[in-house]
Amino acid sequence: MTNGFLQIGHGSRKVLALNGWFGSSADWSAMSEALDPQAFTYVWFDYRGYGASIGRRGTYTFDETAQDVLELADHLGWERFSLIGHSMGGMAMQRVLLAAPARIERMVGITAVPACGSRMDASRLAVFQRAIAELGEREAILNFSTGNRLSAAWIAHRARQSDRHATREAFAGYLGEWASTDFSAQVAHNPVPLKLFIGAHDPTLTHELMTKTWLAWYPSATLETLANTGHYPMYETPIALATALEAFLGQ
Predict the structure, then answer these.
(1) Which of 54, 49, 48 is CA-nearest to residue 69?
(2) Which of 41, 83, 182, 195 is the most buried (most CB within 10 A)?
(3) What is the pLDDT of residue 10?
(4) What are the residue ranges in the chain where pLDDT is below 70?
């Protein structure tokens, strides 16, 4: 049994995407029409307890996710492929890289949590822990992470969708992974080609943070700031993101 997924395209370049904590495989649909299905095959992956894998239970760790990704790649007949990771998906894709470095062609981090985790203090972590059960806290996090500039209706919709598309057990499990774990020593000096995208209105995943973490650990990494977006460029600026993604993945 493999994890659930959605597939777009049938091109020779294979790409698997890992969503963030509040997301699912449905996150990527807004930019699908801007992607090239002749050149690329995209797979939008669902973690255990999320989306099309919502009924699949597990330990909800990124080591488990890495094995699930590799099992799915084997099922699809993919020997080598690239990875996209949004937010906590940035940590998850690095666990895939560590599990099978020879199979990973390129990586893209979209407002991506670095390998050291979020390093939140106790008071901020408590907000995220309350968000497991409280939609109001989810709305507050979404609003803050997009720069307090988007419609209240969209913020409320995203909070509801995040609760609908993931079990709270999985939500709690993955929070412990991206908030508290640190495997940065294992990724230091990794030569994989890596492109990082941050949002101009994201208050947390900033240029300064990326310089101290991702760019310090990956010698081939480059960084680009996307205008008019916060933490969710696949929703806020989907066409611009898709265009920039394929410019890098198609090299």
Answers:
(1) 48
(2) 83
(3) 97
(4) none
